[in-house]
């Protein structure tokens, strides 16, 4: 018997070993702590590229740090995280953003808030979905030696005026608010060449404190700045918008774009020098020094009084509409709930 028992022992040991091995690899409580080896198929799924929706953002003007938050949203991957492949195109008189977006060929644009109201009056259904500069960067400025420091000093002087846009509206609103007779100021239509100001041909110039003022100071001139806020005026200058049709068709896309854009602007606020440098990838004629100065000058205008980035106030829109109608730019009153919405910021 002892001989038969000794012959069976190696077989029993082998069976016990196999049972232990199966227990370790199979179900039961021990399986919950086991680490399964990754399969080739799961690795392929993890690295598969994400499908992105391609959209276009048409700027208000040429590429520069004025739009640094949008560049940051591209560069830091915020748009991609939202499932978007965003192409940023420059704007200007040859590529007006309202017309480009309203045509349906582009999805988003940046323009002055007054242009939203005027477009809606003409039957163009565009809606503002956030504002970029909560405090307008627009100012009037003069060379320091002129002695002109306020609108009242313009009586009997020649002022440069950019006709047909947000700049003209703000200039006329400032003159009216100051109680100055418009006819007492000699006007000279100007565009973007600063020569008439530098040569003394005009005494005051309309422009952005983040751009034209810096350009003149970088040439070695001291300037006096006249702010719209000193006359109770603050019109949203750069406003992000889209069409009512896109809002109704794909609100999730609009929300993703707005929130990724605000992430980009938050990053630009926290990293102004880095964000300013992003713009250099979009235009060959930019200099890092000017772009950094522009971004730093923009910071206090983006979140004055620490108000939420991008959020719009109905009071500001109502005041703008009243000014447009009072000065004869707009005839028919527009409904505020069609003009702007903050719903995509929340």
TrEMBL record:
The entry's keywords: Iron, Metal-binding, Pyridoxal phosphate, Signal, Thiamine biosynthesis, Transferase
Swiss-Prot/TrEMBL catalytic activity: N(6)-(pyridoxal phosphate)-L-lysyl-[4-amino-5-hydroxymethyl-2-methylpyrimidine phosphate synthase] + L-histidyl-[4-amino-5-hydroxymethyl-2-methylpyrimidine phosphate synthase] + 2 Fe(3+) + 4 H2O = L-lysyl-[4-amino-5-hydroxymethyl-2-methylpyrimidine phosphate synthase] + (2S)-2-amino-5-hydroxy-4-oxopentanoyl-[4-amino-5-hydroxymethyl-2-methylpyrimidine phosphate synthase] + 4-amino-2-methyl-5-(phosphooxymethyl)pyrimidine + 3-oxopropanoate + 2 Fe(2+) + 2 H(+)
Domain of life: Bacteria
GO molecular function: metal ion binding; transferase activity
Signal peptide: 1-31
This protein's pathway: Cofactor biosynthesis; thiamine diphosphate biosynthesis
Keyword Iron set for record: yes
InterPro entries in the record: NMT1/THI5, SsuA/THI5
Any single biological process term in GO: thiamine biosynthetic process
Domain SsuA/THI5-like: 65-275
A Pfam family assignment: NMT1
Classification via PANTHER family: 4-AMINO-5-HYDROXYMETHYL-2-METHYLPYRIMIDINE PHOSPHATE SYNTHASE THI11-RELATED
Subunit structure: Homodimer.
Family named by the database record: Belongs to the NMT1/THI5 family.
Function: Responsible for the formation of the pyrimidine heterocycle in the thiamine biosynthesis pathway. Catalyzes the formation of hydroxymethylpyrimidine phosphate (HMP-P) from histidine and pyridoxal phosphate (PLP). The protein uses PLP and the active site histidine to form HMP-P, generating an inactive enzyme. The enzyme can only undergo a single turnover, which suggests it is a suicide enzyme.
Protein name stated in the entry: Thiamine pyrimidine synthase
